Amino acid sequence: MIDLPNCPKCNSAYTYEDGSLLICPECAHEWTLELDTENGEEPPIIKDANGNVLNDGDTVTVIKDLKVKGSSLVVKVGTKVKNIRLVDGDHDIDCKIDGFGAMKLKSEFVKKV
Length: 113
Description:
With 113 residues, this protein is an all-beta fold. It has no helices and eleven strands. The protein has strands at residues 16-18, 21-23, 30-31, 60-62, 66-67, 74-75, 80-81, 85-86, 93-97, 101-105, 110-112. The chain starts with 15 loop residues before the first strand and ends with a strand. The model has no long low-confidence stretch (mean pLDDT 87). This is Alkylphosphonate utilization protein.
């Protein structure tokens, strides 16, 4: 039997393998054995509204009218956003939108093109 490591989030011993991923059934954390060597943690996996994995430099489309905080402007459905940058936090996409400038978006309101 293969000795699998404990979950790095909750330290559960009941981890199991699913393809190349290790999964914790208690906290639903997923990770690989190849951790990021810089800080010992894996980079976050950010997915769009359809479940597609997003990467830096991707082009996405807005799927819902979004009010711009502190302004009367609205980012309309179908607005294409090029060259996104993924960041940590509540709003996990940094981008520049033509006509609006620099903006942060939530990945749940975009889909990958």
